[in-house]
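Can anyone check this?
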Amino acid sequence: QVQLVESGGGLVQAGGSLRLSCAASGSILSINDMGWYRQAPGKQRELVASISSGGRINYEDSVKGRFTISRGNAKNSVYLQMNSLEPSDTAVYYCKAVVVELSTYSYQYWGQGTQVTVSS
């Protein structure tokens, strides 16, 4: 079993910054892609940013130039630095990881979500 634990959400004024963290633990052989998704009330969950084990990065258009995704040295953690936050960034942010377990089977895991609220 694998757990993803997120932290770093909160309330911030427009123009402010937050840093989200996600750490994976459990029966992990390796982790392929990791990413951050968000879901605002009444909307579908959407990809914010993703990063592969090889460092290939993808951003949703509205966050390009404002958000930066990175992985920890041990590759079992992922971070999202969010700058110049806007009220439209308000959502629950979820971490996702594609994990190759000790069994060598690959599974997709989600974190519990962390609330980000940006006030105008």
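Reply from J.R.: I decoded it. The mean pLDDT is 95.
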